[in-house]
């Protein structure tokens, strides 16, 4: 079947053998915690996907990355969610490097070469406000930097090698500046507390990470020259573009897995495929259009609005398609296997990620009326 063949080919280019490795497991085994999918992702070189080639990474484009995430989501929903946060962390570090002192390049190279998994403790950005204002506080003590706070949920909480966290750090000149802390998972003071209470997407390891007087060498904090009250909107926009596109692609992959099962069911070859195919494929094309634009256009408020539009269109497409697929698969499929119901339940998770559609109603209206975009 040609459905998903392009995405799986891109996945195999960047992470050879991962698709075949995931396909060998029952879905239920992949979606449990701990999941074998996370180690398979590491073994296939997945951590380096968005690390620039100059730093020994794969240097995937936005378009290639969203195709990879759709293919991953179609095999293992939990892995798509978990790796979105890894890739988002890497993309954030790449962007922060534009304001840093060069150390970040060495860290990116270590991630790619050593296949390190990076969890995200970044605050959720608001355009025009402080994207790096923290869940986690930082202060200088006796030549060390001491961190306190928590992040929940935090995907990859139990498999991470590093935790990236946005912090505000006061310099020796008394000015608060933005920084990105890179915290080895084995650092004393880091604990993981159960948080995720549903079996849906449990394999993403989205528990609470708590930092209690965690001491870091200052070399593990990527400083910027950006003051805390003057965060460039470029950081906000870049972060949200990557987050929305990668996340949406992964969830569309989950819905696509249900489409694939519907198209391949006994007697399905005689059906009109469009009720299952068109909405999801249309949403994918919208996501890919924004990903293509990231290569050629300014990363502006207008492009972020397009990314949000694609994401909300995907939510509608997922709701329509999963219902149509479950109806076509029928009651015996529902009784005989939990996989269809699981995929439908997992795919609806896109609705719960920020920024929620309902909270963006007024900001989008204001943007259309000529005012700056705000993230609600």
From TrEMBL:
Transmembrane portions of the chain:
none
Keywords from UniProt, A to Z, are:
FAD, Flavoprotein, Oxidoreductase
Q: Which InterPro entries match?
A: Acyl-CoA_Oxase/DH_mid-dom_sf, AcylCoA_DH/ox_N_sf, AcylCoA_DH/oxidase_NM_dom_sf
Output this protein's name: Acyl-CoA dehydrogenase family protein
Q: Which organism is it from?
A: Kitasatospora nipponensis
The major lineage groups are:
Bacteria, Bacillati, Actinomycetota, Actinomycetes, Kitasatosporales
């Amino acid at each position: 079947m040609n459905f998903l063949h392009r995405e799986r080919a891109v996945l195999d280019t960047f992470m050879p053998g991962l698709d075949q490795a995931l396909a060998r497991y029952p879905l239920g085994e992949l979606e449990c915690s701990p999941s074998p999918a996370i180690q398979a992702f590491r073994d296939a070189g997945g951590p380096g996907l968005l690390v620039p080639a100059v730093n020994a990474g794969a240097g995937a484009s936005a378009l290639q990355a969203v195709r990879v995430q759709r293919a991953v989501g179609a095999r293992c929903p939990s892995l798509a969610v978990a790796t979105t946060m890894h890739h988002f962390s890497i993309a954030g570090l790449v962007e922060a490097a534009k304001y840093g002192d060069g150390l970040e390049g060495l860290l990116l190279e270590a991630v790619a070469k050593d296949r390190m998994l990076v969890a995200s403790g970044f605050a959720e950005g608001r355009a025009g406000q402080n994207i790096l204002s923290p869940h986690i506080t930082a202060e200088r003590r006796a030549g060390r930097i001491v961190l306190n706070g928590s992040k929940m949920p935090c995907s990859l909480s139990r498999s991470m090698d590093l935790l990236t966290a946005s912090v505000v750090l006061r310099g020796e000149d008394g000015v608060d500046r933005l920084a990105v802390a890179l915290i080895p998972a084995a650092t004393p003071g880091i604990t993981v507390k159960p948080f995720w209470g549903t079996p849906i997407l449990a394999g993403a390891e989205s528990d609470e990470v708590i930092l209690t007087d965690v001491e870091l060498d200052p070399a593990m904090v990527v400083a910027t020259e950006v003051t805390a009250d003057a965060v460039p909107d470029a950081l906000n926009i870049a972060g949200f573009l990557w987050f929305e596109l990668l996340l949406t692609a992964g969830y569309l992959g989950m819905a696509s897995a249900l489409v694939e099962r519907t198209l391949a069911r006994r007697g399905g070859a005689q059906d009109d495929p469009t009720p299952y195919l068109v909405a999801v494929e249309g949403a994918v094309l919208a996501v890919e259009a924004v990903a293509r634009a990231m290569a050629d256009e300014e990363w502006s408020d207008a492009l972020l609005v397009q990314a949000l539009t694609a994401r909300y269109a995907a939510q509608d497409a997922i709701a329509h398609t999963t219902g149509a697929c479950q109806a076509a698969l029928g009651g015996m499929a529902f009784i005989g296997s939990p996989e269809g119901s699981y995929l439908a339940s997992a795919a609806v998770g896109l609705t719960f990620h920020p920024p929620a559609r309902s909270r963006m109603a007024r900001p989008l209206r204001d943007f259309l009326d000529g005012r700056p975009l705000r993230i609600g």
